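seq:
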Amino acid sequence: SGKPVWFGLPAGAQDLRVDTQLLGADFLLAEEGFALLASVPPGEHEVIYTYELPYTSDTVVFEKRFPYGADTLRVVAQYDSPKLASKQLGEPQVINMGGRPFQLLATADLPREARISVELSGLPRHSLRQKLDRRLDEVRFEYVAPAGLVLFMVLLIGYALWRRPHTGQGSEADPPADTHGDR
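struct:
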């Protein structure tokens, strides 16, 4: 058993999936990435990982550092969106995978401590309806019925108080006061 191999992730990365053919490999999440915990015998090995990265604008730039270097680096995206760009990797090539076009940024023989910056532009933005649907998906439905009942009761009490006849001075329901008296 040797030292863990560390991989950096951009801030906010979530839903990490790691795949390798190293026997007994596991990974440990950390604040800035993950560590691959495995006995790594001499030779070439592949580690493939994917993650989701939330974004707020239609363009995201992320930087990746390669402390160990890399023989091969490939960044793949669907052809229609988003648009890939990288100063270090050049213009994307169009490749065919499974009968569909994809963009490919690739390089080989990255030295130790290499830094690669990749820009994704033209990212889709959620419409107002999609944002509302997403918020509804986050609602815990076990609270919907009790909250709805409480809201209904508050509205019912408010309506009853508003419709209640007002009593007070000068009300028609009060008998007129005798102001003349007997003399």
